[in-house]
Automatic annotation (TrEMBL), chains A, B:
The lineage of its organism: Eukaryota, Fungi, Dikarya, Ascomycota, Pezizomycotina. Keywords: Oxidoreductase. SUPFAM superfamilies: GroES-like, NAD(P)-binding Rossmann-fold domains. Pfam families: ADH_N_2, ADH_zinc_N. It comes from Tuber magnatum (white Piedmont truffle). Residues 62-367 form the Enoyl reductase (ER) domain. This is NAD(P)-binding protein. GO terms for molecular function: oxidoreductase activity, acting on the CH-CH group of donors, NAD or NADP as acceptor.
Length: 372, 372
């Protein structure tokens, strides 16, 4: 099948350069990430042979314009150079294009499987245009978005949903025998999926979600099905937490650290589990402050609890199976994607990270690029 | 076989009462345990029929005089009433005889398997004399000490050795592939056995023991075979810890909490394990102080580490197998018991707990009763 747009004569590209956000210098201290990045322009594909008609796309390549960007705590981790050998992923180098998962629209293609207008997800980074070699589609982690799928919804069911899936079911080993689960940042990307799977799939009796505003608490109860939602900024949070966990805490799903971690350990049940998946409160700090008190730690011992650190990449061989299961639950109406779409210009991209760390959004925070 | 001493005419007992240390009131704050106990005298066996010749021992009973007492951190735990439902064992009640493992000498017996002069280990508590019903020997956890065995050595290879065994091999899952293990309180009862099994049985390349004095450090290296011994009171402890763990920490065996825990987490290896077995530093405190910093906690996540709380009782079905293995290693010269024998009068017994918590001893701290 020959596509008109794939014909060599149609492949004159106006796009020979792309704007990119690169890591300029490792950020220091709280939320001071505005100076960490620099907007530059680079040749899109310096080795592409030029013709008088413009640049031709070589065989098996696709040119995309990125339109949606995923904002993830892991991005913040990768630019933290305090202890480069103590990261779960490789540290980025200064000068690298900032890493990010994005969805792009195919604007030119010399590969028969990709047509102009297709939406494709990949590890495109903060680049406005990307020229992708489909021979290395694994490196780019390319996935075509199914037709009629909202790109932001698709993003909400991406890596963060897989993190929820493996964290809850494999690391947390959740079953219906667990009476109580506490989920931190339960209105956010990972927590909203954990909450829904815990309640609607596993069937845990008491699902307690934690968030930082009344609006988020509303979402946790109304849209994620949690039995109880707690605002950690409440002056009575400690007492409310105790009242919400009369049978203690079988599983605590932690992406934040902070008071929720401390209280969950203080009330951990016998043989309880902590899925230690993130510490978003800490990424910007020096780290010398207290994470866990002696009282909380002693409970790990006495209650024979287990704390397990976890990053989703260790399950990558099982991603296809998990993705299939998650989308099945979506079709069955058991879980649904939650997202906040922030519309911005490409030159505003780093502000998405600031928003992410502030944590005022609901569900997955997706940056949608405004095209004039 | 009839033993002369078992003949009814020989069973006149002079022992109708026993001195006992009971829990008088739950201790508060640091080392203030002197007022927690009260020395009383109670009828040894009120239901024994009396004769003009004295008290006869009923059938299948043995009368013991306790001569060696084991001092264990778990004893301190059982009298901590701050959070009674948050203990790994039952909380003792005020008025109860203080629980303890002890070795007693049989002074009278109406059971053919126990003869006068036999040494028997059991859960005798802080009683000077005990009248044991052999029908409930499981409750008493009776074990006859083999002939020619030093009672203090036998005690050193008791519950604390089993804790070392299961903690290191089952919870810690130690293998020769682990490059580095750090052992806290490595000169003490549990740590000295962990250190020896890690080095002489498992064959871990770098065994780092931690203690609180130069004398203890000497013991860790010379008698337990550790490659490196560190004094946590050294002004350069942090730097010394780093230098001692160039390949990070695969396993940290924790019975203390404190700085050793913090540094072990800061230097935990990928997929490292923390065997959370005790927090002796904390038993006397309110527990509000820091156990783990944010920096250390974040490493649990990034390094995919596992922290597992553990008390040896969960392995009780496997005690016989473990005991056999441990004594086999002793006979093979791979490990040997370490102990400190404190000679004291029965009325000084509670001071053993103070000594234990001070931690200046080496190996198992055994109280040997001075008999005039």
């Amino acid at each position: 099948m020959t596509e008109p747009s794939l014909h060599p004569s149609a492949q004159k590209s106006r796009h020979t350069v792309s704007r990119q956000w690169i890591l300029h210098q490792y950020p220091q201290r709280s939320h001071s990430i505005s100076g960490a990045f620099k907007l530059i322009e680079r040749p899109l594909h310096p080795s592409t042979p030029s013709t008088p008609q413009g640049t031709c796309i070589p065989a098996n390549k696709i040119l995309l314009r990125t339109l949606w960007f995923s904002n993830d705590p892991a991005q913040r981790t990768r630019i933290n150079n305090a202890s480069p050998d103590r990261l779960c992923t490789d540290l980025m180098r200064e000068g690298d294009v900032m890493s990010a998962t994005a969805i792009g629209e195919v604007i030119e293609s010399s590969h028969p499987e990709y047509r102009k207008g297709d939406l494709v997800r990949g590890a495109f980074g903060w680049s406005e245009y990307v020229l992708v070699d489909t021979d290395s589609s694994r490196d780019w982690q390319l996935v075509k978005i199914p037709p009629k799928t909202n790109p932001a919804d698709f993003m909400a069911m991406g890596g963060t949903a897989l993190t929820a899936y493996f964290g809850l079911l494999s690391v947390g080993a959740a079953t219906s025998a667990d009476k109580t689960i506490v989920v931190s940042a339960a209105a956010a990307a990972i927590g909203s999926i954990v909450t829904q799977i815990a309640k609607n799939v596993v069937g845990i009796k008491r699902v307690v979600g934690i968030a930082g505003s009344e609006a988020q608490c509303e979402v946790i109860k109304e849209r994620c099905g949690a039995d109880i939602a707690l605002n950690y900024k409440s002056p009575n949070f400690r007492r409310e937490f105790e009242e919400a966990t009369p049978e203690y805490v079988d599983i605590y799903f932690d992406v934040t650290g902070g008071e929720a971690l401390e209280l969950s350990l203080r009330r951990i049940a016998r043989n309880g589990r902590v899925v230690a998946c993130g510490a978003i409160f800490r990424y910007d700090s020096g780290g010398e402050e207290m994470a866990v008190s002696a009282k909380a730690w002693t409970n790990i011992i006495f209650m024979k609890a287990r704390v397990e650190g976890f990053t989703v990449s260790e399950f990558k061989d099982r991603f296809p199976e998990a993705r299939e299961q998650v989308f099945r639950w979506v079709r069955q109406g058991k879980i649904h994607p939650l997202k906040t779409v922030w519309r911005a210009k490409f030159e505003e991209l780093p502000q998405g990270m600031v928003k992410l760390l502030k944590g005022e959004h609901v569900g997955k925070l997706v940056t949608e690029i405004i095209t004039e």
